[in-house]
Amino acid sequence: MLSLRSSGLFSLIDSLWPPLIPPKVHGQSQGSQEHVDLSTDMFLPAPSFCYILTPLPGEGGVDVLQNESVSDLYQPSTLHDLKHICQHVPERHRCSFSAEVIYRRLQGQPANLQMNKDFWLCVTDSTLQSASHDSEVPRTISVCVTLFCVLGTNVIKSLNDEASSNISFKNAIVEKDSIVCAEGTVLSVQKSMLRSNENQEISPLNGNFILDKLSAKTKLNSLCTVQGTVVGVDESTAFSWIVCNRCENGKLEKKHGEGELLYCRQCAQSVMTPLTKMQLEVFLQYPVLPHSTVKIKLQEQSILSLLLHSSSDEGGYEMSSVLGQELGPLSCYVRSVTNQPASWIGLEEIRLLS
Ligand SMILES: [Zn+2]
Question: Which superkingdom heads the taxonomic lineage of this protein's source (predicted)?
Fold first, then answer.
């Protein structure tokens, strides 16, 4: 007999078992029903099968019945705060929580969340942001939203928003360094009550989120802050280009016969005042990790502040004058962590949603 268990699916069944009322067992009389009552139902194994409902191709979606009473055979998932989940929920178990999404990492299409790839969200809540914070617990948690997690249109809209959003995650899976949204995980948009309800005993989030400092414990795809001295410039990454001041499209065309005038095909207009974009990656000396190479891709504002103190000539900026300057604290996303053959940490400066 072929025995194939989908671990994601069965961790979901396990999280819903046992139900609120003892289930009836087929083939047993009412008299023997007591064998599965409160005193013994713990011995009843969780079902080893389940049905997956999916719409037929071309039939649209599955309708969710609103205001229907929920069966007692269903054990509703319990909401926990993120600190509780970090400390008490074992790996590969399901958990449910609501959290503030303060950063999203979308690969490829930064301007528009597309649902054709896994992507990362960084979330936090008031228990991770509190002043009396346990240093063993992270300030933010990385959530991987896989292709198996079906997202509703209002969730997609909210995640595409420029502001941070409060999202409820139901039946997500705890993994080693992150939380994973897979089959059976349901995301929904919450009213941001942590901010508006002042009577709540947990402190409201005010938008000034605290991140962990970069350390030897910092994980891939997480957030951290870093502060250090510039000790090198990756010259191969240093360049600037001009974009349309309306749509930031970088593919501007020279219009023939009109001098130096540039034209944006996306806006179908001439670009009178193009914007200059810059890219630069520098190496930081970071006292906490003296033996690690820390490379950081900077945002434009940080590049400009470095260049402000540099000499420039017609040919561009003198990169050596950037060396020795102090940077930070900067909020960063961890793009790579390597320990062999040497410790190397690749960061990208980011702006948190607020
Ligand atoms: Zn344009």
Answer: Eukaryota
